[in-house]
Automatic annotation (TrEMBL):
Protein name from the UniProt record: Cytochrome C
Sequence ranges assigned to domain Cytochrome c in this UniProt record: 25-125
Superkingdom of this protein's organism: Bacteria
Compartment(s) where it occurs, according to its Swiss-Prot or TrEMBL record: Cell membrane
A Pfam short name: Cytochrom_C
GO cellular component, one term: plasma membrane
GO MF assignments: electron transfer activity; heme binding; metal ion binding
Length: 125
């Protein structure tokens, strides 16, 4: 009986690790997703602002805080901190998450792409 309980516990732990790894996203795949962002954003440390702000170090940063970038009044007033959860919601529908944002991108439809993009952004934070 103890052997069965140990095996069951191992299975539960293994599944938990698999799920957390899946939820963490794949930074390499996220780099490919970021190609959709490159027209407006850079991600290199010290990179320039383009149509949108440089996104290096964005995870955990306050919204509207990249120096030298002129944000919309809506983004300045948002009070958002770019947690993984907030980024995920923003990437789904930017204009719904921050009405009147300057960001014209319509959003990502696939949760996996969002998870991968966040993993890539975290890797560059």
């Amino acid at each position: 009986m103890a052997k069965i309980a140990t095996m069951a516990l191992g299975l539960v732990i293994g599944l938990g690790l698999s799920l957390s790894a899946a939820q963490a996203g794949d930074a390499a795949a996220g780099k490919k997703v970021f190609k959709k962002c490159k027209a407006c954003h850079t991600i290199d440390a010290g990179g320039k602002n383009k149509i949108g702000p440089n996104l290096h170090g964005i995870v955990g940063k306050a919204a509207a805080s990249v120096e030298g970038y002129k944000y919309s009044k809506a983004m300045q007033a948002s009070g958002i901190t770019w947690t993984e959860e907030n980024l995920a919601e923003f990437f789904k529908k930017p204009k719904k998450f921050v009405p009147k944002t300057k960001m014209s991108f319509g959003g990502l439809k696939k949760d996996k792409q969002i998870e991968d993009l966040i993993a890539y952004l975290k890797e560059n934070s």
